Amino acid sequence: MNRRVKTPGGDLRSLLASRRRIAVLAAAAFVILLVASGMLLTHPFWKPGAAFATDTPASAEDRTADLVTLTTEGELDPVKVEEAFAPVRHRLEGLHVLMVPSFLSDFLMPAREVGLADYFQAQERWLAEEGVTFEIAGSNTAASSEENAEWIRRHVEASEKPVCLITHSKGGIDVLVFLAGAEEKLRHKVRCWIALQPPFGGSPIADTVLADPGASALSEASLALLGGSLEAVADLSTPKRRAFLEEQDSAIKEVTAGTPVLAVAGRFKSDTWLDAGFPYTIPRSWLERRGVESDGLVPVQSARLPHAPFVLLDDADHGATVREAMPLAEDSGLFLKALFTLLPWKTLTPDD
């Protein structure tokens, strides 16, 4: 049975509880916004700054051209997508999809209850149409990747069905930490993984927050309100992520050799303050002035996983792939369907 966030009905206590959660989380989000503002004042994006290293993994395979073949006049063509999906539709039969959300996305869950957010809803709708069970992970997105990896491990282990993982942003790091340390039997239970805009190589935005004592202190206080810690921000830093990729290269290679994995990188450019991509315009500009193409938070190169294929989505800010509408389609569920056609299913054994 699909597990959705329940909509408050006639239960007044449930409705009030939802509103209290929204208020608390909105307050935390406001403090975090102040942190970001303080970081930008300390490190003005309009001034020259040091460039960041953004190496592309040589072993990452670009499958963007294959995605383009599914479009007509710049948008995904439902007929072409269905033709490509039909031969792999059986791969979803009997699977349970676990969606692992992004850093600080917890406030979106109660917002969904009252119709203020559409996070992952188009994807859920498409999965329901295909008869696939699904749920959004209940891990604490403000916690460290090690903590969330353990939550995912227990959840996959307890699942009565093989699991397919769909992650957004930091959720991709949480899953990578889990898979890199999982035993072969448990890895085998994960039949596919689509990573939407993951910061595998880290983000310079996190580096800047950690380097500023004031921003770090405010971040730590804000995360404490959410039951998390500053370690979650450290998990997004480029030194920690690149060290992990180097140390775990053999394990990552084993993971991608036995599990179909596909990563999605995004990038957008905007010359006007309120153009597409707001509120990611400021960090995007800050990164671009340091020679980094990004989706507003994650550099294009950081979203590419070694030994795995990826696609690059243009005109996409960091939330593009999990909203109702997106650059390639009015329904991002169609985009997810297209991504399933691009997964390297050949990595599974004939018995899977």
What does this structure look like?
The chain is of the alpha/beta class. 44% of the residues lie in helices and 12% in strands. The protein has helices at 12-42, 64-68, 78-85, 108-113, 121-129, 145-158, 170-181, 184-189, 204-211, 213-225, 231-234, 238-247, 249-258, 281-288, 332-342, and strands at residues 61-62, 71-72, 75-76, 96-100, 133-136, 163-168, 190-196, 261-267, 309-314. The longest helix has 31 residues, at 12-42. The model is unreliable at 3-24 and 30-51 (pLDDT under 50).
Architecture blueprint of SSEs:
Layout: H1 12-42, E1 61-62, H2 64-68, E2 71-72, E3 75-76, H3 78-85, E4 96-100, H4 108-113, H5 121-129, E5 133-136, H6 145-158, E6 163-168, H7 170-181, H8 184-189, E7 190-196, H9 204-211, H10 213-225, H11 231-234, H12 238-247, H13 249-258, E8 261-267, H14 281-288, E9 309-314, H15 332-342
Parallel strand pairs: 1-9, 4-5, 4-6, 6-7, 7-8, 8-9
Antiparallel strand pairs: 2-3
